[in-house]
Design goal:
The complex is a heterodimer. Chain A folds into two domains: 3-184, HUPs (Rossmann fold, 3-Layer(aba) Sandwich), CATH 3.40.50; 207-322, Rossmann fold. In chain A, 29% of the residues lie in helices and 30% in strands. Chain A is built from nine helices and 18 strands. In chain A, α6 (219-230) runs parallel beside α9. Chain B has a single domain (2-248), classed as 3-Layer(aba) Sandwich (Rossmann fold), CATH 3.40.50.620. The termini of chain B are far apart. The chains are: A alpha/beta, B alpha/beta. The interface between A and B is large, with 94 and 80 residues.
């Protein structure tokens, strides 16, 4: 029977929620095609990750545990994923459209002689068969595409698929004898400088407080207290990141992260097309900007034309008081 | 050393876009710009060429006829040594075919580094550099925000989820450029004059010995996403809190 292979991403032994969105996609695709789905876990000492995935209805959890897979370097991970896909006869390989998925999956596609669709937001029935919907031109247009090869590779936008819930069951865990061929990869991991944060991940946060260039060197002073009160993640426009007021990891937009929280605060953000592409699917958008003509007000559910330096602290204080 | 760099024109994503009647591509009076990430790739190539002797830089553009003009004005005028234009119908090529066209050019040119924009802001696929690296069996360093050459290695800082990763890849390699890699320069008047005399080779896909020129992914329909309606303006913070609590029930 035809199979979908889902690539599970994990961090410090925990499955990333974005990968459960890939599971959600797989369930939808499986329902339309009669396929089943397996999950691949690559890395070193990833037993706990595999164990945490056994309740999601997969036919099997394939574990490739190898010292040379400790860091997700594209040539080695792509080789092992493609080997695994061939071994189990997978027709579809899917991962979340994270930097990891975007880095590695195209190489898997070449190895499998498959076409690939990036950043999929939906499954559509087209005149030419079952297709995939994806944003193009910074989200100004959506394209329905079909992959013409028998084997298909794709990344899915996590914000478009609610994370799959565990359904019980007990998927078997199978060890895969990985051969990463690290020597041939000519790639060496040097270091990782992680953003230290106690806040939720942007991709997983229910509330996001995002700031723009207008906040200048008060970026943290304005956004952090409000984020603290709401338990929110902090994001930024590209302009704020380019000017050094916020770290690159905060960037929301077409070329940064795409998010869809329950509540999104756009503070001193003008609302350039490329920023809107990253947040316009948020459930509720609040814009606070002193210039009422900014395009952000065209997508905001609630707009407040006010100086962020006074309005945001006031908002923070009043919300704090309400929450006791 | 030889560096191959991408020079792709894109229809400006900030402009109004009109979907063609057959629904498969855009049409009409479209404004084109150099792909932002290609500008970063070009700047990176120029900086490497300026920092050491004996570096040749070659810009590659694939697309409709007008692409050749972009190679000259956007790459050669900025200082890239020469250009290669490969004619192709933009609505008929996918990332995979573009990567295979690049592979054909790499076999002719034998560069040490291929520098490509991390994505084109029309198709937004973010695949070509990675596909090319696998076709060539080369290492890759995607989403680069810093590139340093040390001996036969490139030490590349990558912008990844959760922070910055540094990897070392040995040459030859593919590097894809992110926005914070550098600040692209403008072409100088002297550069624009010089560019007119720089070599710009024109090729057809058939010149590149590909197995086939068939795309693996086809756009079947393009449409405009349903827009979001503007909401209401509130007069002050108190009204905002009241709306968020009462109407939206989100705080």
């Amino acid at each position: 029977m035809s199979k979908i292979l889902i690539v599970a991403e994990h961090d410090k032994g925990i499955v990333k929620k974005v990968s459960l969105s890939a599971v959600a996609f797989a369930r939808q695709w499986a329902a339309k095609t009669g396929m089943s789905y397996d999950i691949a876990v690559l890395g070193q000492n990833v037993g706990p990750v595999a164990a945490a995935l056994t309740a999601y209805g997969a036919g099997a959890i394939h574990v490739a545990d190898h010292a040379d897979l400790a860091h997700p370097l594209a040539p080695t991970w792509a080789k092992v994923l493609a080997d695994l896909a061939l071994d189990i006869g997978a027709d579809v390989v899917v991962a979340a459209a994270t930097t990891l998925g975007k880095d590695i999956l195209p190489r898997v596609a070449v190895r499998l002689e498959a076409g690939m669709a990036s950043d999929v937001i939906g499954i559509v029935q087209t005149k030419e068969g079952l297709g995939l919907r994806r944003p193009m031109w910074a989200g100004n247009l959506v394209g329905d595409v079909i992959i013409t090869t028998d084997t298909k590779v794709l990344t899915v936008r996590a914000a478009a698929f609610d994370a799959a819930e565990a359904t019980g069951g007990n998927s078997p865990i199978k060890a895969f004898a990985a051969q990463p061929d690290a020597a041939k990869s000519r790639t060496r991991f040097v270091s990782f400088d992680g953003v230290q944060s106690t806040r939720p991940d942007l991709a997983e946060a229910a509330v996001i407080v995002a700031g723009g260039r207008g906040l200048k060197d008060k970026f943290n002073a304005v956004t952090e207290p409000l984020a603290d009160v709401l338990g929110a993640a902090i994001g930024a426009s590209r302009a704020a990141v380019d000017d050094g007021f916020a770290p690159n990891d905060y960037q929301i937009g077409q070329t940064g992260k795409v998010v869809a929280p329950q509540l999104y605060f756009a503070i001193a953000i003008s609302g350039a097309v490329q920023h809107l592409a990253g947040m316009k699917n948020s459930k509720v958008i609040v814009a606070i900007n002193k210039n009422g003509d900014e395009p952000i007000f065209k997508v905001a559910d609630y707009g407040l034309v006010a100086d962020a330096f006074s309005a945001v602290p006031e908002l923070t204080q009043k919300l704090k008081a309400l929450r006791g | 050393m030889k560096i191959l760099v991408s020079a792709k024109r894109v229809s400006d994503p900030n402009a109004r876009l009109q979907v063609a009647k057959d629904g498969k591509w855009i049409e009409g009076d479209v404004e084109y710009v150099m792909n932002y990430f290609c500008e970063n790739a070009i700047e990176c190539a120029l900086q490497i060429a300026e920092s050491q002797d004996g570096v040749e830089t070659v810009a590659v553009g694939i697309g409709d006829e007008d692409t050749a003009r972009f190679i000259r004005q956007g790459a050669l005028a900025r200082g890239i040594d020469r250009g290669i234009y490969v004619a192709a119908e933009e609505s008929e090529i996918d990332s995979d075919l573009i990567a295979r066209i690049y592979e054909g050019v790499v076999h002719r040119e034998r560069p040490d580094i291929v520098l490509i924009g991390k994505q084109a802001v029309d198709g937004d696929s973010n695949q070509v550099g990675q596909l090319l690296a696998e076709y060539l069996g080369w290492p890759q360093a995607t989403f680069a925000s810093k590139v340093e050459l040390q001996g036969d290695e490139a030490i590349v800082t990558r912008e990844v989820d959760g922070g910055l990763e540094v990897i070392a890849v040995s040459l030859p390699c593919v590097i894809t450029a992110d926005l914070r890699l550098n600040e692209p320069r403008y072409a100088s008047l002297a550069g624009i004059m010089k560019a007119k005399k720089k070599p710009l080779e024109e090729l057809e896909i058939d010149d590149l010995d590909l197995d086939d020129a068939d795309p693996k992914v086809k756009v079947v329909a393009l449409s405009t996403p349903s827009g979001r309606k503007a909401g209401v303006l509130v007069k002050d913070v108190d009204e905002l809190i009241a709306k968020l609590r009462g109407e939206a029930r989100v705080v």
